[in-house]
Amino acid sequence: MSLWKMYSWNWRSRMLKLLVKKQLSEIFRVYFYNAKKNKARSKVSTIMFMIWFAVIMIGVLGGIFTMLSRKLCAPMAALDMGWMYYALMGLLAILLGTFGSVFNTFSGLYLAKDNDLLLSMPIPVSAIVASRLLSVYILGLMYSAVVIIPAWIVYMVTAGVNTQNIFGGIILTLLISVFVMTLSCLLGYVVAKVSLKLKHKSMITVLVSLLFIGAYYFFYFKARNMITDLLTNLTVYGEKIKGSAYLLFTFGSVGAGDMQSSLIMIALVTVLFLAMWFLISKSFLQVAISTGKVGKVKYRRKTMIQESVSKALLLREFKHFTSSSGYMLNSGLGVFLMPVCAAGLLWKGRKLFTMLNGMFGSQDGSVLLLITVMLCGLISMNIMTAPSISLEGKSLWIAQSLPVTPWQVLRAKLDMQLILNSIPAMLCMICTAVVCPFKIGQFVMMILQVLSYVFVMAVFGLFMGVIKPVLTWTNELTPIKQSASVMITLFGGFGYTALLFIGYMALPGYTLGYMRYIGIFIAVNVVAGLTLYIWLKTKGCDRFAEL
Amino acid sequence: MLRIEHLTKKYGDKTAVDDLNLHIQKGEIYGFIGHNGAGKTTTLKSVVGILQFDRGEIYIGGESVKEQPLKCKSKIAYIPDNPDLYDYMTGIKYLNFIADIFKVSAADRKERIHKYADLFEITDELAQPIAAYSHGMKQKLAIISAWLHEPELIIMDEPFVGLDPKASHLLKEMMRAFCDNGGAIFFSTHVLEVAEKLCDKVAIIKGGKLIRQGTMDEVKGDESLEDVFLELEK
Predict the structure, then answer these.
(1) What ipTM goes with this model?
(2) What is the Cβ-side half-sphere exposure of residue B77, based on CA atoms within 13 angstroms?
(3) ABC transporter domain: which residues (chain B) (predicted)?
(4) pLDDT tens digits, residue range A244-266?
(5) I need a surface site. Which of A224, A337, B10, B84 has the fewest CB within 10 A?
């Protein structure tokens, strides 16, 4: 190797090391840095944050997949069909890993705000791409590992701990993580290419994502029947897969420790990874710096309309929400799902009502409670107010320097969430009334519960947004997905919904009857909502002005 | 028009602005100069009500910024050092938003937006999202939004950064015309030649303290502003 080549190699690896360090510090920044106080977190705070994340990932997600693994593993291992068990769990890991990382891949690879800065420095493009891929890899690994590692452990507990099973699981985990990265990057590349030519990117992204989610839930609801069918006809399906989907058999056999299958899959995944690497590194520069070929919209002089201050502020919030697919999908998914539910109720509502009535009819108001819980669950997905303060970001100076009160700004955020939630929620309730014969009193109580919950969620999200703002971000997805305000509001909403359900069915709230039980929740909603509303109008405004 | 009395602002233990007194009258272009971190931006942000200060008072047209923030804000326009505007809006939507907040009538806003957009040659770009704008274009948009509601006082932090020579020249003309019509401008700059030619009065700040202020002749005498500034910075 010539001296120049050696120097060049050393230099490249040094650059890569530096970029990887930067990328890692960016990924795990939230654990070590308090954006609100603009200083490093204490050790205790860092540890608490890590424990919280571990509880969610390992305790909740890992727990779910451990239970699934336990159900599938024993019958398959008994028939010496470990390959099928690993094939199924592996596919699930790929699905979850890709689902978890694909949304970040496009923005992380091509829309990172420091692309221009890094490209202007003497850093090889390949080093930038490699460092970006690392963050995609870590995300994919994190999500796929919560499926495949419990599956691996359960398999060893069931089939025995031996060298074959240990290495099989390790190789499969690594192969899946690399494959997930490859798949996410390819999907990210397609999104990048397509988005260069799209005019209404945000809305199209939302629609595609909704279709994706729809397909996901379609299979999810079919999963129980599919698993039962699979377990009763294991040998039949096993032979079918071996005959017509040999690659899937090979893939599953890696986990079961088959050496030949491992070599084949390693070779295959390596080839796919290299092809993806070639594609991404060749096209990165072109896509990252491209401004798109969408025709430039030329301004045409036309009549202008004067709006009131409050309407102007409200329209600003709507504009922000509808211009960002990330904001819409992560903070307003329920808004899109509620009309779908309303249509579903009209379509199959009577059948659903008859079915639920047969199951829970003995407990008065149970069916109506289930519908109330479903609506509250959908409303819990809508947390636009939670990241809305953080999303002001560097533009916060505008709201603060304009002749508007902090309350006018906060009120606009609140109003947007109230409008976007209450209209589709009302639509769902009207459809419920059309297909389900409920007593008028019960129906009124459902309306009061749902609307008061819409109010609580809006003020609670805004309260969290004001007390936990993150104004220093480089990617809009950071405050939308990773901020404390969003996490607390989201899990708070789901916790409330779970309590509503468990309280009635298990505690048992049904002894009070639907009217009294829901009456308690409405009273709590009103008290909590008004308390938070008053806080926002007084102390919340002071805090907003001081940001 | 603008009276700053004993303004003091601290960040923790550090005093960013220390007992600052300034008086800017109608018709004056008042330059504010000082090295990086001297306290210029802190002072300007305190004037426009973005920062809450620890001591002192700021009056705009006789109204206290602390007591009557909305009245004061409705009289002023602010252009920050970095024009971080709403990236998710188009240029025209942003200008309309500002016009709505300042209650500019439909006819007036149409006339002013087209007038200034034509002057800065960005009319064709107004339908583009701000995210697609260059720094200079964002700065032009921020300037148009400042002039849009005909304020009484304009506060600007480094307004010439990012502007092309033509736009820079135009801005200077607009500033002079605005003050000749009874307005007042308080702006910070590092371009001392511009300050020397454009300003009626100038204030020099160092370490949060005002070290010299007055008419251009009073401050610089027979020397250049640059010489005086460098001498004071020693």
Answers:
(1) 0.83
(2) 24
(3) 2-232
(4) 888 888 998 998 888 899 999 99
(5) A224
